[in-house]
Amino acid sequence: MRPEVKYLKIGIRALSRCGRMLDLKKFKIYVVDRGVWKGYDYVILPDGNVVKVRPGKYMKVTARGFSFEDLTEELNQEPDYDYNEPSCSIESVSGFVVKTVKLRCSYDSSYNIRLYYGAVKVHEFERGFYDKDISFKYIDRIEAMMASAVAGLAGGAATYYLRRDARLGLGVGVAITILGFVASFIGSE
Predict the structure, then answer these.
(1) Which residue has the higher pLDDT, 4 or 104?
(2) pTM given for the model
């Protein structure tokens, strides 16, 4: 097993002690001053070209969290691979459907960097050296879809039981489920 895959699994397992899972590969940074996006296994250059890189090249996953490297080899920079732009530990993940994630981050960079989780902007780090506690929310699509399916079935069953009309019960159940699926995608990454 490749070391970065091992650490990714360890990082996800470490989060399960909070009773919640978090896909660490959804974290990415945008280096504002250079116009570069960096994720676990890719870089998007200022001209829009997507470059696949070795998994973990610019994003390191550890047992407690994750960290990024701000310098980009593909832009003729020499990365120092200190992975502190930012370096974050996951303190807690809570909530059902709407998740609240608490991070403790250290930052040391001469660049302005935005941290994202999927499409959710987590924080904007200004150049400098400091520690910061951060909290953000996002919608967990899988939990939202499961909740909408259960609500749809329950609504359909209740309508059928109360009205004794199978078509109405089925219609209400389907309508609630569809509304739940649509709501699960509004505001999610």
Answers:
(1) 104
(2) 0.71
